[in-house]
UniProtKB/TrEMBL annotation:
GO molecular function: chloride ion binding
PANTHER family in the record: BLR5128 PROTEIN
InterPro entries: ACT-like_dom_sf, DUF2241, Orange_carotenoid-bd_N
GO biological process, one term: light absorption
GO cellular component, one term: phycobilisome
Domain of life: Bacteria
Domain OCP N-terminal: 116-134
Protein name: ACT domain-containing protein
Upper lineage: Bacteria, Pseudomonadati, Pseudomonadota, Gammaproteobacteria, Alteromonadales
One Pfam entry name: ACT_3
Organism: Pseudoalteromonas ruthenica
Amino acid sequence: MSAITDLHTLLANLEPQLQPQEYVFCCVPGLLSDYTQLNPLAAFSEKEGMTLVLEANAAQQAGFDSAATYRQITLNVHSALDAVGLSAAVADTLAAADISANIIAAFYHDHVFVPSNKAEQALSALQALSADNQ
């Protein structure tokens, strides 16, 4: 199936899936190659440093602050990178439920990181968003 750009179709087919792991976001100096042994889920370079998304256990073992943990909700719909409005609709839905959302768009799917203590609530909100668009 090719990537979807139509917002209504994307929302109707979100198929959000809560992943079991807990993650933390860490800012580190240096290059990604300095941290590959931690097996980061994601990395992004900024002028202030490199952000790594690490499993909470790996971050803790490496001595990083792991107090704020997040759960990943994968949106299993195959969203196009140039689709308009998906991230906004997801963020608006979660904001209405007072849940922060950190969204990472990958090639096939979008991944929403929400505070661990609100993960089930976030999953329910996204399931309702999808049902409302069917």
